[in-house]
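This follows on from our talk about sequence and fold. I would like you to pick a protein and set down its sequence and fold. Go ahead and set the record down below:
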Amino acid sequence: MEDFVLEELKKGLDEEQQLAMMMQKLNDDISTIFRQIAAYRFEQELHAQYREKGYLSKEEIGLLFSKHMASYMGDGVSYDAGSENWWIYWSHIRSFFYVYSYSSGLLISKAMQRKLKQDPAFIAQVKTFLSAGTSAAPADLFAKMGIDIRGKNFWEAGIAETENLLTEAEALARKLGKL
């Protein structure tokens, strides 16, 4: 729920500082959501190809990695020689299928923030959820809160929080003559 802390901090900043903070947060959120999904898809394809072919060379792995990072970064980013080997640097990529938890965790948090903004009494359910630890499957814990994490709407609510920040940052950037 760090976004609530950032909202409070933002109150003490001038508009230039607010925009800088919003841009940093957007960068963090977009990286956490979309880069980690690209990394997860890289892992999926890497494991599928390994099951099919066996040994994969670093060049083959590099091509897969580049393909999935390009799906995240798009055409606006140049890919220098050696960037296809960034997967070697990411040690957590060797903890198979771990990276998805970054995206899902952030989107879950943002969806819960959205619900909390709509109903401040929801904090009691958040506290119950947090105290549950690993006592039950996440889907079951969320179901007790009236949240269906298997439904598309839940995940879209998380993304909507990032979209709201983007809209707010764009408006402030226009006001400051930066767009």
